[in-house]
Amino acid sequence: MLFFKRNKKTPSPLPDTGLPLLSTTELLKKVRELEIKSKKITTHLFSGEYHSAFKGKGMSFREVREYAEGDDVRFIDWNVSARFSHPFTKLFEEERELTVMLLIDLSKSNLFGTSGKIKRELITEIASVIAFSAVSNNDKVGIIFFSDKVEKYIPPKKGRPHALYLVRELLSARVSGSGTNLDEAIRYFNNITRQKSIAFLLSDFLDKGYQNDLKVIGKKHDVIGIKVYDKMDIDLPDAGLLQLEDAETGRIRVVDSSNSSVRQAYHRAFFAQNDEAIKNFRQAGADLLHIRTDENYVNVLQKFFRKRK
Question: Where are the beta strands (DSSP E) in the chain?
Fold first, then answer.
């Protein structure tokens, strides 16, 4: 038997209670593995890319020094120059500290993957890499877990211990909600976040009605959506009669996957929802990345960071 949820129906070979619980030993081992992998990626592949991709809050005065040929005359400090009868120029540095928020979709439609990783596992790994990239740049990072409601909020902080805590929560987070409500998570983020932040929204985006609040946060924050999907989210296999269950509602139906019209309708439904997400992010002035479960997400992120530079 296959478990699918297209539109609101994607495949889910796992129990709908969530991912298997890890023992304390298994959890610590997995956290350590993700830390090592994330640090390796951050150090060797994202060195400079993450830092350059996101702007700080502005420029702050650092010091004055003697004017040198090629310095911008607009920054000459005329008071100091007059005092010493020699031109001096002001030096500024970027106020670098940023706040990164990860909005993580824990809905049951993400408990699926036919190749590479389960979507939830991919989201966890990408979020871990972003978290370690943030703390290695001395930025704050926090998380909002959501399903059809906000499941948990972890305020942003700095430092390796906090990043490790976030990864533990990513690996062990459980779901009490039954569906997906992107709008609820976006509104919650907007209500609790006063200063400009970088918001990564990681989801399969199998939801509607979030476009208005996405526009609101898009005006104030730097918003990046990361859509994760599986190749079978796009195409239904030619496998005869299939009993399909909605991963979030439990509704069951039988379809004839050998019928080309059924497969074409399934294919069109994916791209219709995908086009809707692209339109929503474009209208919000936000970015949207697409990463398949069997794809090298590092290349996608690196290309995005370099483009932002």
Answer: 58-66, 88-95, 99-105, 140-146, 150-157, 198-203, 222-229, 241-245, 252-256, 287-292
Q: What's the predicted TM-score (pTM) here?
A: 0.79
Domains of the chain (ranges; CATH) run 24-53+96-308 (3.40.50.410), 61-94 (no CATH)
Task: Give the pair of three-digit tokens for residue 105.
Answer: 């979709």
pLDDT per residue as tens digits for the range 83-131: 888 898 887 655 557 899 999 999 988 988 888 889 999 999 999 999 9
pLDDT in tens, 222-257: 999 999 999 999 998 899 998 887 777 778 889 898
Residue whose structure tokens are 């590092």: 298
Q: What is the residue type of 194?
A: R
| Dihedral sign, Cα of residue 239, residue 242, residue 245, residue 246 | positive
Q: How would DSSP label each residue in 23-54?
A: PHHHHHHHHHHHHHHHHHHHHHTSTTHHHHHS
What Cα–Cα distance (Å) separates residue 85 from each residue in 67, 71, 82, 92, 268? 12, 18, 5, 22, 74
Give Cβ neighbours of residue 252 (< 8 Å, ≥ 6 apart).
243, 244, 245, 246
Alpha carbon 146 to chain centroid, angstroms: 13
Compute and round to an integer the Cα radius of gyration of the chain: 23
Distance CA(26)–CA(19), nearest Å, equals: 13
